[in-house]
Design goal:
The chain is mainly alpha-helical. It is built from 6 helices and 3 strands. The radius of gyration is 28 Å and the shape is rod-shaped. 12% of the residues are buried.
Length: 128
């Protein structure tokens, strides 16, 4: 479990940066060399490689070096842990919202019942 949390933390940390999200989005279209990935960004290659390293460490990106070219590809399986976490959080919040809705409906019914005149009140008022 601790290892899964560490991996989840790494995935979220990797995706927290806009440059890394842009790299992931580009890799959704297919694999690319580091040079191709770095081209749209105004930064030195060593700085860009730090982003690639973070993505590799998180498991989101796999790279392979052939000769002088490092090619990167997306590893979508790394997102499965994040997807599971989101589904668990969604279930928790949906249950909370369902309980809140039930509570609000109960309050509305109680308020409506309190505003309704009782039968004894109507009888007394009609006798006068």
């Amino acid at each position: 479990m601790a290892n899964q949390l560490t991996r989840l933390d790494q995935v979220f940390a990797a995706l927290a940066d806009p440059t890394r999200r842009a790299i992931v989005m580009r890799l959704c279209a297919g694999e690319a060399s580091v040079g191709e990935l770095a081209n749209p960004f105004d930064m030195a290659l060593p700085s860009f490689m730090k982003h690639i390293h973070v993505l590799e460490t998180s498991g989101l990106v796999l790279s392979e070096k052939t000769g002088r070219v490092r090619t990167c590809r997306l590893s979508p399986d790394a997102l499965l842990g994040a997807e599971d976490w989101f589904q668990q959080q969604r279930a928790v919040w949906e249950a909370r919202l369902d309980r809140f809705e039930a509570y609000v409906m109960k309050l509305k019914k109680e308020r409506a019942a309190a505003k309704r005149p009782s039968r004894t009140t109507r009888r007394k008022g009609s006798e006068s």
